[in-house]
Design a protein that fits this description.
It is built from three helices and six strands, in the order βαββαβαββ. It has helices spanning 19-28, 61-66, 83-90; strands at residues 6-10, 33-42, 48-55, 73-82, 94-101, 114-123.
Length: 125
Amino acid sequence: MGVIDIFYTSGTIQYTPDPYYFLKLISDSKARFKIFNRQSLNVGNKDLWTVQSSRLSWHGGTELQLAGVADREIRYPHVNIALAHFEKIVTEKNTVLYTFEEQSGVQKVNKENIIGKSYVMERKI
């Protein structure tokens, strides 16, 4: 198997059933560079689990209609990982090269301070 130079993820970890497992798996990988794009993080000290809803058609509407799938509302879990927890895991074996704000996937949760942030990292040698 070849060497992976870049691992890229965009706004997906927060939708997995066990985000810490996947975050650690990616962080510990031997890929030289890791890009965590569109992370929706809680500045507070706790993870925030919510349920999001959307229309099924927002996730590939034309293909679904052609397949005969009726449009409907779908619901799915989402977590805003605590910023400090996220950064502790990703910096154990990686160096942050730069970060930038990315607010496109951010939704307010009560009065919590949710931010959108992206990270470009390089594996520590």
